[in-house]
Automatic annotation (TrEMBL):
Record localization: Cell membrane
Quaternary structure note: Probably interacts with PlsX.
Biological source species: Loktanella fryxellensis
Catalytic reactions of this protein: an acyl phosphate + sn-glycerol 3-phosphate = a 1-acyl-sn-glycero-3-phosphate + phosphate
GO annotation, cellular component aspect: plasma membrane
Lineage: Bacteria, Pseudomonadati, Pseudomonadota, Alphaproteobacteria, Rhodobacterales
Protein name: Glycerol-3-phosphate acyltransferase
EC top class, as a word: transferase
Pfam families listed in its UniProt record: G3P_acyltransf
Amino acid sequence: MTDPITLLILWAVIGYLLGSIPTGVIVARAMGLGDLRQIGSGNIGATNVLRTGNKQAAALTLIGDAAKGAAAVLLARQFATPDAVQIAALGAMVGHCFPVWLGFRGGKGVATFLGIMLALMPLAGLAACAIWALTAKLGKISSLAALLAAGWTPVVLVMLGRGDLFPLAVGLAVLVYGRHWGNISRLRAGTEPRIGASKSPVNGG
């Protein structure tokens, strides 16, 4: 029988490799948009893809980045233990933010975070999406919407009786906040561009 620790490491690697798939880069190249890392901010998330003016490509990137997080969770749930599910989820998030294929320079994790949450606990995932959408609509600042969605998700999980997922959600939120450090600095300075501005902040995965 395989050692439990070895299995957890295996699922961490599987999650990481899934998360490392550079959806935005692949979509941009496939649709003739060039090297996404040379466009706008150079970020590989859907927000930067949108800077190309191709909404279809941005939507595909958003869906793909969310899907790889969800896939890590669903695969581990099907074939492994609950602990492995959480490890795979964390691995997918780390993989997206620090993909080995791109020199560990990845996205900001929001779409992958939402995909993970939707697969782990659909109500919590929907709540995170709702927080993002409402904040983006009212505040017109996408990074603020992402930060609030990630920050409130651990609380929502506890309210829904899934305190067992609280540590994971906090860890994922820490990654989101860390990847948004520049956005946070601009938010504090009042210089973060709003949605629709020519230099909108990158905060998607």
